[in-house]
Amino acid sequence: MADPPDKESKTEEATEKKIRDTVEKGKLPHSRETAIFGSFVAILAYAVFYAKDAAVDLGVFLSMFLEKPESWPMNTEADVISLYKDVMMEISRAVVSLLVLLVVAGVGTSVIQNMPQFVGERIRPQLSRISLSQGWKRLFGVQGFVEFLKSVAKVGFAILVLILALSDSVQRLLEGMITSPVEFGLVIRGFTVDILVVIVFVMGAIAAADIVWSRFHWKQDLRMSKQEVKDEMKQSEGDPIVKSRIRSVARDRARRRMMAAVPRATLIIANPTHFSIALKYVRNEDSAPVVLAKGQDLVALKIREIAREHNIPVFEDIALARSMYKQVSVDSVIPSQFYQAVAELVRIVYSNKASRRQVS
């Protein structure tokens, strides 16, 4: 079994066929950072538009629960279950908007990168997915190294953002603690939004760079060696040897079909050795003489041999035979410029037949 070509030998850009086949298998460039960026955008949108109202509603519910515990009887198991349902319902109301935004962001970032499609190949069990060697390559190959660098960059960036964002947080938090609980909540919300804005901005830059890198790496992986390009051309256009063999078989079949039709000919036009044309003309049946067979050299001699075996008259006319051979097609009527010359020969054939009938 031949070894697969190495990276150095893959110097050619991927052909359209390989790209199309790869896309049909669902192997498309995908940026993980784009999904993370979309998630932070969803969280930021939630913090700006929904978090305040959700927190207030949840706070009102919890304050009622804590200030008036006697309003929530817990004497039976049914009372506990009812309280549990109420608490979970309030918490769900507070976070349902966030969950919806996260789902929309996840689907949206995937659709933006590649249109969704069902590919059975992606869910088919493959031994390579549990191969130790393939796993080692994924972890310590170029892609794994890039993923490691991105992770380190993201962690370093997160630490830097937190340091910058929290530089004046102590003073802001101290000032907020002496205000009302509602105002202090707004301080915390503003502080959170500031952090999220910075994270979204930088994650957007990382996601954009990762999209460019993922598509570049995808195209690099699709590169082909010169031999792969040649093999694909053979597959798409057909192997020249096989095509030559097919043409040869087709010619042999056509030749045998012509030879089988020669016995039905009315006459043969030939020069001494090079060309032979077998014509059929039946009065009240054919509008013009029809070419049953034509051949050159050995095929021409074979046509004349069959003609002799079946007593078909052969007319030797070098100029007419050469001219007709170039312009007529098998199973077609002769061109009009040959009508007069061939009509004279047909007349001779029918006259000879009439003479033989009179003699007999």
Describe it for me?
The protein has 14 helices and four strands. It is mostly helical and 360 residues long. The protein has two domains: 207 residues, no CATH class; 117 residues, secretion proteins EscU (name from scop, 3-Layer(aba) Sandwich). It has a four-stranded mixed sheet, sandwiched between helices. A hairpin with a 4-residue loop joins strand 1 and strand 2. Helix 2 crosses helix 4, helix 7 packs antiparallel against helix 9 and helix 8 runs antiparallel to helix 9. The two termini are 78 Å apart.
Summarize the structure.
Helices cover 68% and strands 6% of the residues. It is mainly alpha-helical and 360 residues long. The model has no long low-confidence stretch (mean pLDDT 76).
Strand content: 5-15%
Number of domains: 2
Rounded to the nearest angstrom, the distance between the terminal CA atoms is: 78 Å
- Radius of gyration equals 44 Å
- The count of DSSP E runs of length 2 or more, i.e. the number of strands, is 4
Structural class by SSE content: mainly alpha
Largest sheet: 4 strands, mixed
Tally of separate helices: 14
What sequence of helices (H) and strands (E) makes up the elements?
HHHHHHHHHHHEEEHEHH
Could you estimate the helical fraction of the residues in percent? 55-70%
Q: Strands across the major sheet, in which order?
A: 3-2-1-4
* Average pLDDT rating: 76
Describe the global form.
Answer: rod-shaped
Stretches where pLDDT is under 50 for at least 5 consecutive residues are none
